[in-house]
Q: What sequence folds into this?
């Protein structure tokens, strides 16, 4: 296992009957960074997270979280001591009040951060005496977040943490993630909200139909991905999509739009031989990268 | 100083921070000895990954523009008098304004002018950049 990785999987597969929810996934999540797991609904994000946590077992393939093998029950128990998570079906006890739930969780962890608990209870404005089952979806998410953040995990795994939260709460959530990472925690969170991923993530893994399509740093995406639009005197000449670095070619009348995932300058140099009347190079944001990548899949 | 980061721009966030600090030093907004927030504080304020700020600060330190003191933040180093630079920028802004005015006079809209500038600058940036 590599030292610098918090999560690593090899050809991870989850088959539900005819459906392959996760397909040969090779995931690598570096330590002390924010890695976003981006995909549409049903892309395989939650299934992957459940396999990482040992909630569901893989059909085939292997993986490790903090160096502990995910298919080994005793290693899995050890791993869960250092991993805090907020998953879809938040494991909360509906009949308890918020206060009882927090006290109950606190009793499990010797290194519970009381200051963090107090601060977050106040900030999230959680109603202490209300039963968990009577909480709104957003409030339940906040409670689950508080329980995860009041611990001292090495790794924080969040499945769609902003789902059901209002914009103010999303901002608070993102700030808490930033705080945790500044304190040395590794964060792996799934999302389909491109704007939040684009703001705080160091790396992004794009998954679609169970397959990992992009695994890159946001810096690299910002620096490398370019839209190159070539205009011609007459009809645009055919351009091979096998041009090195070109992910996509779209021709429309006298114009050709290329999506380069790297080496945009080399691509521009090569297209000079075609004598375009104008060349326009523009940046491509994560939304476009995501939509184009998923569309092609 | 006030940072304005654009997550959708085709430029890494850390280099946006670097560029804005450089610019603030060049224009005298930041002076020698001025304090910048610590990595953690600035990351929380801008709601970006702490790794982004750490990378920006380390690049600025490398360029001799910032001194990082463990636990007590970051301090600007601007030994040279940069007043002349500020004047140059003002003069350049005037020239840009004149050019814009003349393009306006030719009937180009603000949007068209902005597009021309952006496309031209971005193109040059892409061509000149060495890996």
A:
């Amino acid at each position: 296992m590599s030292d610098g990785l918090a999560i690593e999987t090899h050809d991870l597969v989850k088959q539900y009957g005819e459906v392959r929810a996760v397909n040969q996934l090779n995931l690598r999540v570096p330590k002390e960074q924010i890695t976003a797991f981006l995909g549409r609904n049903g892309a395989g994000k939650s299934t992957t997270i459940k396999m990482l946590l040992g909630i569901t077992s893989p059909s085939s393939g292997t993986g490790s979280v903090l160096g502990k093998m995910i298919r080994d029950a005793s290693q899995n128990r050890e791993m869960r001591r250092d991993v805090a998570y907020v998953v879809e079906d938040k494991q909360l006890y509906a009949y308890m009040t918020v206060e009882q739930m927090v006290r109950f969780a606190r009793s499990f962890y010797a290194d519970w951060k009381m200051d963090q608990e107090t601060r977050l209870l106040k900030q999230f404005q959680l109603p202490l005496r209300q039963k968990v089952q009577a909480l709104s979806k957003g409030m339940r998410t906040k409670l689950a977040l508080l329980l995860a953040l009041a611990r001292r995990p090495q790794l924080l795994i969040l499945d769609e943490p902003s789902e059901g939260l209002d914009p103010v709460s999303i901002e608070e959530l993102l700030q808490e993630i930033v705080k945790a990472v500044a304190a040395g925690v590794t964060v792996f969170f799934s999302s389909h909200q491109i704007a939040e991923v684009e703001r705080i993530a160091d790396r992004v893994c794009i998954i679609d139909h169970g397959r990992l399509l992009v695994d890159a740093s946001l810096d690299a995406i910002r620096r490398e991905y370019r839209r190159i639009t070539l205009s011609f005197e007459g009809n645009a000449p055919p351009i091979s999509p096998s041009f090195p670095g070109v992910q996509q070619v779209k021709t429309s009348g006298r114009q050709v739009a290329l999506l380069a995932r790297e080496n945009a300058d080399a691509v521009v140099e090569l297209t000079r031989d075609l004598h375009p009347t104008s060349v326009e190079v523009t940046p491509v944001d994560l939304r476009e990268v995501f939509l184009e990548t998923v569309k092609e899949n | 100083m006030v940072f304005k980061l654009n997550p959708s721009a085709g430029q890494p966030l850390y280099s946006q921070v670097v560029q804005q600090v450089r610019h603030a030093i060049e224009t005298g907004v930041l002076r020698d000895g001025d304090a910048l927030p610590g990595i953690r504080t600035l990351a929380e304020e801008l709601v970006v990954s702490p790794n982004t700020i750490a990378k920006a600060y380390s690049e600025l330190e490398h360029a001799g523009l910032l001194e990082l003191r463990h636990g007590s933040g970051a301090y600007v180093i601007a030994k040279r008098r940069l007043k002349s630079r500020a004047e140059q920028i003002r003069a350049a802004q005037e020239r840009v304004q004149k050019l814009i005015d003349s393009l306006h006079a030719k009937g180009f809209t603000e949007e068209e002018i902005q597009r021309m500038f952006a496309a031209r600058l971005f193109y040059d940036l892409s061509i000149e950049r060495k890996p």
Q: What stands out?
A: The mean pLDDT of chain A is 91.
